[in-house]
Amino acid sequence: MQRRKLLSSSAKALTAAASAGVLSSCTIRRETAKSAVAVPKVRWRMATSWPISLDTIYGGAETISQRVNALSAGNFQIKPYAAGEIVPGLEVLDAVQAGSVECGHTASYYYKGKNPSFAFGTSVPFGLTAQQQNSWLYEAGGITAMNQIFADFGVISFPAGNTGAQMGGWFKQKLEGLQSLQGLKMRIPGLGGEVMAQLGVNVQVLPAGEVYLALDRGAIDAAEWTGPYDDEKLGFARAASFYYYPGWWEPGPTLNALVNQKAWNKLPNEFKEIFNTACYEANLTMLSRYDTLNGSALQRLIKGGTELVPYENKILKAAEEASFQLYADISAKDPNFRMLFEKWQKFRNEVSSWNKVNEFSFSRFSYAQK
């Protein structure tokens, strides 16, 4: 009798436990369902400074879009637009600031007229290599410094691409010393453009989609963009024969994802982390792609008749002197620029001293053997 009572009690206990488990499971499912319903659906538009045909640089915007969508299970989606579809390529910051779009993909040095310090967010003449630029941004306070400037425009910025060291531009005529720069019409943005202006160049700033026609029709005598892969796509070799190197004005330029601060503040923290991660991936992916694609593109250009020409040392030395004089002149007028420049210069000196020991010594030997 006692045995039957014990079995009966045990069965009741097991039944009760099972029922509790089912109820608990149902509660978890209901809570999960509630959480799923609570996840917001966010849809952003991203204006860019690039034509779709430049798949690697425009690809930075696409990488962000794809990764944000994948990591959020489709709850956070960003649609990129080519230059001119929403706003012209050189007005992305204005659109993001005004809230016409939630975000953009561009180069901050396009907007140096609004604040000269924006140049450091992309690249400055005789500045940092791509790896050094990333080190400055991610580990030496560069992102924080740049966002203190962007805050005045109601915008937050993220590194979101890098082309690596660029080429020095396409010229219709071969340069014959510094005097050849006098009156020469050249497409070149950023502080590099200001340096060229000091050397006598008539500087033009044009978006990618307008450069070829201007060069082909003689509206400009020279133009720089990025490097062989993009330059080949844009057809510059059909408009000019002489391809100069190095691009001393952009040794490691960062592309920037800009976000309207109010739109950013509305995002759940999870989506903010997703966006930040997607930009990080875009930054590294773009550099890897350019390093992979530029070498073969350069060989195709050379085989097609392009003449590869190094800048004379006299031009490089004159440009370097003009660059640091420009930094001194702007610093004298703009205390915020001076404060940023001094911190950047301190980092540049330290990392250059280190890289002379490790990377430069290896490269000097290795490349000489080939």
Task: Using brief descriptors, characterize the structure shown.
12 helices; five-stranded mixed beta sheet; alpha/beta; single chain; 370 residues; six-stranded mixed beta sheet
Sequence stretches where pLDDT stays below 50 over 5 or more residues: 1-35
**Residue-averaged pLDDT:** 91
What is the H-and-E element order?
Answer: HEHEHEHHEEEHEHEHEEHHEHH
Tally of DSSP β-strands: 11
Into which percentage range does the β-strand content fall? 5-15%
By helix and strand content, what is the structural category? alpha/beta
Quaternary structure classification: single chain
Structure description:
The structure is a single chain. The chain is α/β, with parallel strands linked by helices and 370 residues long. 54% of the residues lie in helices and 14% in strands. The chain contains 12 helices and 11 strands. Strands 7-6-8-5-9-11 form a 6-stranded mixed β-sheet, covered by helices on one side. Residues 1-35 have low confidence and may be disordered.
Question: What are the SSEs and their pairings?
Answer:
Blueprint: H1 2-38, E1 42-48, H2 58-71, E2 76-81, H3 92-98, E3 103-106, H4 130-139, H5 142-150, E4 155-162, E5 170-171, E6 185-187, H6 190-198, E7 202-204, H7 208-216, E8 222-223, H8 228-234, E9 242-245, E10 254-260, H9 261-266, H10 269-303, E11 307-310, H11 313-333, H12 335-369
Parallel strand pairs: 1-2, 1-3, 6-7, 6-8, 9-11
Antiparallel strand pairs: 3-10, 4-10, 5-8, 5-9
Helix pairs in contact: 2-10, 6-11, 8-10, 11-12
